[in-house]
TrEMBL record:
Record keyword Ribosomal protein present: no
Family recorded in the similarity comment: Belongs to the type-B carboxylesterase/lipase family.
Highest taxon of the lineage: Eukaryota
Protein name stated in the entry: Carboxylesterase type B domain-containing protein
Keywords: Glycoprotein, Hydrolase, Serine esterase
Amino acid sequence: MFIQVQTINGTLKGKQCTTFYGKKYYSFEGIPYARPPVGRLRFSDPQEPSPWQGVRDATKPGNKCCQLNPYTSSRMEGSEDCLYLNVYTPCLPSEGLQNLPVLFFVHGGRFIFGYGDYYRPDYFIKHDVILVTVNYRLNILGFLCLNIPEVPGNAGLKDTVFALRWVRNNIAYFNGDCNNVTVFGESAGAGAVSSYMSSPMALGLYHKVISQSGNSIADIYMVEDDPIAKARQVARSLDRDDLVDERDLYEYFLEVPIQELIVAFSMAEIARPPSVIQAFFLPVVEMQFQGVESFLTEYPRIDIPMNRYTNVPVLAGMNSHEGALFLQKDGRGNIEFEEDFYYFIPQYLHIPRGDSRVCEIEAKIKKFYFHNQPVSEHTKLEYVNMVSDVYFQFPLMLFPELLARHSNSIFVYKFQYHGNLHTRIMGNLGLTGASHGDMIQYQFYRENKHEKACEADTKIIKMLAEAWCTFARTGQPTWQNQETQWLPYTKSSKHVLIIDTNTACVRNPDLHRLQFWLSITGETSKL
């Protein structure tokens, strides 16, 4: 059954769907929220979408954004014409006006791959919320920065803000409440939605934040480097060593066939040492240009400790062993332990290799995690913990610590449940717990995953969906038959919800790991 909805830009034809448990909902996919960024708009900030005549088909997804996952594929997917979003709603105004909470989800994928319609709404729709998912420009198309007005950087993040503006202006036509929008992201998407708190561009467009396995103060989201040098490196991959000037690079990149451009970007991505896991092109602090809207004018790593951010309720957390996904393996599947511990020193400290502090910090790390024992298969769990802390857990634990200085509405979780919907990472390592990308398997319905779910898995699925939806509705995460109250993280209590077979709310069990890294970085916090 098809159904039509009138929006500001024109009429959409969507379709009625049914969840796997029999609940009706309406799906509108492939909705344009910005003008296609093609031709000379390839790297530009997003532009307002054009209205259309007649009825636009919204019964199938829009194009994926151009992407090539260099770690799993050699083939480019998607199109430059990709700025589309999807709306899934349990009811429409024609059936009775409602003001439903809105969950606006930004996908992860290291800013190099992913797409919105991969994430299905079944688990969330049960709780009478609206789910919006979005495509945004990735890789060089979304994150090239040449420090000129035409390419100031952060185009992909600005795309997501344009999608949020579309939600503000149109979600009422789908029974959504534009004054109750929870932005929700995982991994790189969590970095994006948490950076809204520091962005003048996103002000007033959202009311709560859920950040899973990522945030805006982490090195893997943002580092201080030279984006022009990176652009030149991509040009060299295209045999254009002569291109140095920013405008020459801009004009050249506009004309390069998209397949060649994405392959050249991917070559730069994989040419780096394996222990460098952040994307080649990342969000930047933008230079200011007249008439150009900035997404970020300062590093969130600086703004948040100084209380220069939008204070809203936040739900944030991590998998128990985030770093397990990023261990290097040899051809036989054995872990290749990184011997150069310089890669494990936070980049924002700007400590050069030859500095005397390097050996001192490396020695402290080896003593803390390995008790000065050799790093080997016998210390595999300790190695996973170290990698997890460096890349993820340290900034993920520091984030609520900073926010709790000025808010009593911060909720923190640690997901350590080990179930049938997990990726293979932890099982292949012979470890229990959850790696990067594991918890989200229990949040978005996929038929091939769901049919593997045992009773304990189903309990976790139901708990996560309901807690996330009640947080979106009221700012307080609750669920039926809960064994424990999820208490907020405060300066004194430091409550963390441990999500496991027996879920419990306890004082942060990893506080000693946070304190260790604060001692390394020289930061002070009343822990």
